[in-house]
Every structure is written in structure tokens, then in C-alpha cells.
């Protein structure tokens, strides 16, 4: 529960930082900032994320003591890749190449991919050993420094470059603060093994390839928007998706940090069939939480925009968020509900196939949809892309793997969402503001929780009732 709370607080603070950076940079400079970050995400996925997945899957407290070569191999691989990426960053900066980003921003994109890759790798190592306090310290330190340096850089200088440098420094400062939990004395006795590294790479690369393909869609669309409509429109278009991804990512990550590790534990202690059963349960839980969350975000959208979105982004923010809401739901369900089933089964090719379907769907949609004065066609294309990828991976799951949530959980969650929609939709006509959003959240939450209690959606009533009773009795 502590890890889930830390994940949620981390994502919430990232969300606040994103809004403040957008406010202080303005649409045009924020467009440059977010395009550099989109490029850095793809670079990080390509170079470093396989190490994060390997740490989550193959490193544990028992492995730390009995197999020090695991951590030694992970550390050595990260060090060599980071060194090569640093050389590439300096090369890009000095080259003067004609890129969608200026050479200095392109070099910084590589630099921030290294720092963020190191942070995510460190977090994965701590999570794998269930070092909750060390993980919490690392996250709190990073967010405090990011608020000071990234937001501060945007406020004082109004520069995407300074904000990105602040982001990199905040990660390095957090790692220094949380270094105690990351030190593994046993790894010093281990020896990095090339064969072991190749095994980790073989496990992680199909997942990484799929993620790169998915991330190439928003990156490509942002590049096209910036070239055809300017960086200001790219900033308007990007903020809606960035905030939405952080919201659903907060929810999905908070669930995944518990649910996937639980499935891995079942596999190690009770065997593959037990792990498959746990994954099936996990899928129902994720759907039952993600579906009402995305619907709720749409229902409170006018008030949320009025209260939190910087004034220079209002109007386009709500428009683009509504168009990309299906993409946000699909993103969360693919990554936190469906993909883990293939990861547990060690059958990862379907992830790449589904991601290719998503990329092709995006390109076809851009080509076939009518051109608009703004980026609406690109927002629709992104939703079409994500839904196509989800349809493809779902079809392959039904065909290849005997893992599926109970139908009553899916239909129960949909019924709860329908009830929430009917109850809150009339409140959407209230003047946007704190009172309206509070009423919408309370009514929507109460209605959906009533549905959970009545239908025991995803077994949440059974899970929570003893805890609630214990609290009340205590």
C-alpha cells in the first residue's frame, strides 16, 4: 500500500510540474520542450528500458544474495550505454544538423533520456527488493528538486532548454540523496556476464520495441503539427495528451507496482498456472479502475480546465483532451492490463505486432482524415491508432493465451460507468469552478462505489470490506 501511495504522489507532483512548466513557458516554448521530451522518451526506451524491465523481472533480494552477477551485469550494461549516449549527445550538439529541434535541444533530449533512464532503473532496483522507504525517499527528493529546478527554470528564464537542464539536475540530485538504498555490496563480488546481459536484452527488447512503436505515434504527430501549424499549436495539442497520460499513468502505475509483482511472486512460488490466474484477476481490477477514471476526467473537464489549465491553453486543451480520451484509456489498458499477460507467458511477439498495427493505423488516419485548421485530425488519428493497437493485442490474447478477466467484472464496470455518466452528466451544465468539480467528483464517485459494492466488481468489495471493517472497529 505504501508503494502505491508513493506512486500516486509521484505522478500527482509530475502532473503539477507539467502544468506549471506549460504556464511559465507558454504554448510555443512549451511545444519545443515537449517535443524534446517526446524524443527523449523514444531514446530512453531504445537504450535503457530493457534494463528496467530486466531488473523488475530478474532481480530480487534473493538474487542479490545468491546471484550477484545479476546486479553486476545490469550496472555494467547501463554504464557502457550511458557513456555511448553521452558521446552521441555531444556529437549531435556539435554537428549542426538540420533537425525538427535545434542541435542544442536535440543534444539535451539525449541527455535527459540518460538521466531519466538512470532514475527509472534505480526505481526498478528498489521496487524489485521491496525497499519501500528508499524508494519513497528517491521519489520525494526527485519531485522536490524538479519543482524547484524545472519549474524554477521555466519561471525565471522562460526557456525550454533551462527547464530540461533543471529536470536532469533534479534526477542526479535525487539519486545522490537516495544512494544508500541503491548500494549493493554483494554486486562487487559478482562479475558482469555477456551471456546474462544478452538474456536480459532478449527478454526486454520485444517489450521495448512495442513501446517505441507506440511512442513514435505522438512523437511523429507532434513533429508534423509543429512543422505544419507551428510550435505554439504543437504545445496546445501536446499539453492535453501529456496531462492525460500522467493521470492514467499514475493510476496504472500505482496498480502495476502491486499487481504485476504479485503475479511474478505467484509464478515463483506457486507456478505458471497460479500466475496466469492472478493476471486474469489483475486485468479485471485495472479495467474496473481505469474505465471510470477516464470517463470521470471527461465529465469534470470544463471545471478542471477553468481551475488548473494555464489561461493561454484554455479552449484547445478541453477540445484536444476530449478527442484523445479514447487513446488515454487504450494506453492504460494495453500497458497495465493486457501486456502483462504476455510478459508472464514469455510470449512477447504479439506486443510488437499490435504496436505495428497502431503505427499503421495512425499513418492511414492522418492520410485519410480531412485536414483541419488546427491539430484535430492528428488528435483523432492518435485515438484511432491506440484503439487499433488495443483491438489487435486483445484479439491475439483471446487467441493465444488462456487469460481473460471475468465477464461479470467487465460488464459490471461498464454498468457502473453508465450509472456514473447518467448521474454526473446533468451536473456538467453547472458554471465551471471548484463547487461544480467537487459536486461532480462526489456524485460520480459515490455512484460508482455503490455499483462496486452492489456487484462486487473485480472482487473489490470482497477485498476492501475486511479492511474497512477493521478501520471502523479500530
Write a structural description.
- The protein has 18 helices and no strands.
- It has about 475 residues and is mainly alpha-helical.
- It has two domains: about 1-190, no CATH class; about 205-474, no CATH class.
- The longest helix is centred in the first third of the chain and has 46 residues, at about 1-45.
Topology:
Layout: H1 2-47, H2 49-58, H3 61-66, H4 68-95, H5 103-128, H6 132-157, H7 160-177, H8 179-182, H9 194-229, H10 231-270, H11 272-299, H12 301-308, H13 316-344, H14 349-368, H15 376-400, H16 407-424, H17 434-455, H18 460-473
Helix pairs in contact: 1-5, 1-6, 1-7, 1-9, 1-10, 2-4, 2-5, 2-9, 4-5, 5-7, 6-7, 9-10, 9-14, 9-15, 10-11, 10-13, 11-13, 11-16, 13-15, 14-15, 16-17
- Number of distinct helices: 18
Number of strands: 0
Weakly predicted, low-confidence segments: none
Shape: globular
The SS-based structural class is mainly alpha
Distance between the termini: 19 Å
Q: What portion of residues belong to β-strands?
A: under 5%
In angstroms, what is the radius of gyration? 22 Å
User: Into which percent range does the helicity of residues fall?
Assistant: over 70%
* Main beta sheet: none
Mean of residue pLDDT?
87
Number of domains: 2
Order of helices and strands: HHHHHHHHHHHHHHHHHH
